[in-house]
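Memo to structure team: turn this sequence into structure tokens by end of day. - J.P.
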Amino acid sequence: MKKITILCLGLMALFSCESGKKDTVVTNPEDYNAYLDTSHNKTYQEAMAQKEFWSKRLRPDSSGVGDLAPLAGAYEQLFETTGDVTHLYSAEKLYRKGIEVSANDKDAFARGLSHNLISQHRFKEAYQLLNETMEGPSNKHQTRLMLFDAAMEMGDYDKAYAYLTSVKDMSDYNYLIRMSKWSDYRGDLDNAIVYMEDARDIAESRDSKPLRIWTYSNLGDYYGHAGRIKEAYGQYLKTLALQPDNAYAKKGLAWIAYSNDGDTKEAHRILDSIGVGHSIPDYDLFRAELYTQENDNIKSELYEKKFLNSLAKKDYGSMYNSYIIEILADKEPKEALSLATEEVANRPTPETYHLLALAQLKNGDPKTALETIETYVIGKTHEPMAAYHAALVYKENGNTEKVEKLKEELLEAQFELGPLLTSKINDL
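Reply from structure team:
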């Protein structure tokens, strides 16, 4: 099974929010309380210092080409530490300026821009730009690595694998983390972990703090996939030891507290320490789920509305379309169908097609939804949410045998899916 919202595989029975703690509780506040101190904002301070330094160096006409990339990198770091999407757009402008004025490093700026566009979920633009870059003078190795990333996001899996095999190097960190991603996509979790562990060993041998942070947090996800919750927990703690204000690792801890330990209050407490300096719409949806689990539907609806209002206030583009489609499918099915159709046009992957099938189903068209599922989803992804939506479609079409088969698979992914969705799966 594959990652969907926050983490992955494990074991979770239905429980109440007050008395549902499991015997196999993993989280221990003494392990991470020091990291929940909201004064931990060193990463933000460092990013701001870099932004100010390179901004001062950049000439008013933005022609200081050597200063553009570091300044863009500082803005992207600010986005990662604050969740403020405007920093991502500032970096985009700088990369575009670099492409315009650079005489010798256009391809480097193009790769920077492509990475930025992928972060914005503008996958088609990134893929097109990288292909154009590949045709001209460029660092072919680095460009092929990024072409793999873009091709995977576009569902062009054959080309993605071709790009990956063309840069094969078992001693290359960047190759190994992509082999890990490829293995995960193929449903080969064991090798996904092996490749990521190999990448971790390289990061540690180099004593590279950024690579160690990235690898530890991603290993946490993979160990979660495998039901190795204690090891996942350990990886998030190792991440926080290096970067106490790492929001991703804290979110991982919060999900373990909620989905494995049945402790919604602790999950709320951990999230509180993130939201102070790093406010992104994801956390509102997480809180909405926690409140639903606590049978507080008023607060749950409040945070769901807060999520939608956050998207309305700031232009997040397509970054949250998948979340929006799932919310609107029940409340505004026509809008959900329109948005899902747009998503498929921009990114024809099994992950967008199963959302299209959901929207078709909620618009009273189960036969078309079934055709979508069987043509574009079944056998093409290992993502639990795709399997869940497929089960809904099969149930509406009266295929109980396939529903039971999918239900069995889904109940293996209870940690990833969380108790609320697990309850719905049990009712299929």
